[in-house]
Amino acid sequence: MKRLRKMKIKYFYQLLISHVSILILAFLLLSLLFSQFVESYIFENKVGELNSYGEQILTDLTVRIEGNEEFLTEYSQLLEARNIKYILFDNKGRVLYPELKSDLMIQLTSDEWAAISKGNRISVKHDIKRFDQEVTLVALPYMQGGRLVGGVLLLSPITGAMEMVSQLNRFLLYTIVISLSATILLSLVLSKNLIKRITDLRNAASMISSGNYDVNVPYTYVDEIGELAQDFNEMAAKLKKSDEEIKRLENRRRKFIADVSHELRTPLTTISGLAEGIKNGLIPDEEKSKGMVLIDREAKRLIRLVNENLDYEKIRSNQLQLNKLDIHLLEAFEIVKEQLEIQAEEKGNVIYIEAEDDITVHADYDRLIQILVNIVKNSIQFTEKGAIFLRGKESLSETIMEIEDTGVGIDPREIESIWLRFYKADLSRTNHSFGEFGIGLSIVKQLVQLHNGAIAVSSEKGTGTKFIIRIPKEI
After folding, report:
1. Residue 351 DSSP SS3
2. Which of 144, 180, 253, 444 has a Cα at 20 to 30 A from 37?
């Protein structure tokens, strides 16, 4: 089955056809209306002139002595100078002047004669049948006592007027030809400019489709295509930024996978080796309990990795539901201290709590403990023989929690990066149970935001780090 191919019409021809069509239609209407107007105006003036002369002749007929034809000759000479002829006729339609003949009748139709008989004037703007030429004629009745006595018929050739109308039409035709030529030239210029701008957009779109986002479409005109080019450039800039972010995350993902593979291999190798040794009796009985403790610790290490990734995915996909209630902040601090005190002592750190008994925080209990534990673990990891402070205070609208340590601190240039999922502030520190996978602080920020709260960090190298968490009170 043959496929139908759509006809491809270039933009230049589309623009040209539309312009020419509109121009031709406009000039045709203009020519028609203008010709009609000029023709009507000329004929109306001619009819008015003939009526004026006819009235003057009839007026003179009423005051002149009967039979005196001298004034009629004067009118003939006057009107002939204006290329006008007149004929006097009686009530029977016989011609009385310029030549009295009983058999010469005035050339009026029955309808025209009926109108004259009733005392009505008649006018024909354009007559080509009765007088062997194109004329304008008027006939005025001469009434006495309500009866038709006679009248006057005036004729004026209109050959000159028709030539004027024809000349005007020729001028309009010349105007159409000139306008069409200008339209073609203008369409060519406009279409080339527009086609170039559209081609620039097409080339830019082709570059983006091939993965090159470093494009910039020039826009020098403040019109719709210029706005489109500007929007296109903004889109390309955002795509470029997104592509750079994707590449950066992809690199971190690969690093994360490599780190996770390394971290998984170590505990799995330990667990597998100890299990094999116990099964084959290669480990003495007095060492078996120590091996079981090591297996348990490594297994829990693997569970933490899995749980952190599951938590992060639940938060990101909005599957995590919060059960908020008012929690005594001092109690939460003490629970966190109890859980992590042994780890802190292993590195020579001391945990201090500074909070009033009546301070509460409106949060999900389990997630609040998870937030605090992750941050305190981070402080323990980067602090040796120092102090970690848990402080709490509140205002009318929010509860403020501060976790501050005296550790090695964070480079200010890296502060914004610590919230990224695969980021690790110190890649050389991978021997601790927290922070080695680089997702703990990312989970913390997500959980704080789920509470409609905010978290900030300030730090300098060698002076410690302070985390400040603000959780709004229940409305």
Report:
1. strand
2. 180
Mean pLDDT, 10 residues at a time, over the chain (475 residues)?
49 69 76 76 83 84 60 77 84 79 73 88 82 84 87 83 74 79 76 78 83 79 77 85 83 72 72 80 77 78 71 66 88 90 90 91 89 89 91 92 90 72 48 46 85 89 89 83
**Rounded Cα–Cα distance for residues 475 and 470 (Å):** 15
Nearest to 311 by CA among 437, 162, 462, 172: 437
Q: Does the structural domain 322-472 have CATH classification 3.40.980.10?
A: no
How large is the C-alpha radius of gyration of the chain? Answer: 54
- The model carries a pTM of 0.44
86 neighbors 152 (Cβ within 8 angstroms): yes
Cα–Cα distance, 333 to 376 (Å, whole number): 10
Reported for 114-123, long-range contacts at CB under 8 A and 24+ positions apart, including other chains, are 116/141, 116/148, 116/151, 117/141, 117/148, 119/143, 119/146, 119/148, 121/51, 123/47, 123/50, 123/51
Choose among 437, 453, 351, 436: nearest CA to 397.
453
CATH architecture of 11-163: 2-Layer Sandwich (3.30)
Token output for 457: 């960090």
Paired tokens of 428: 């050389």
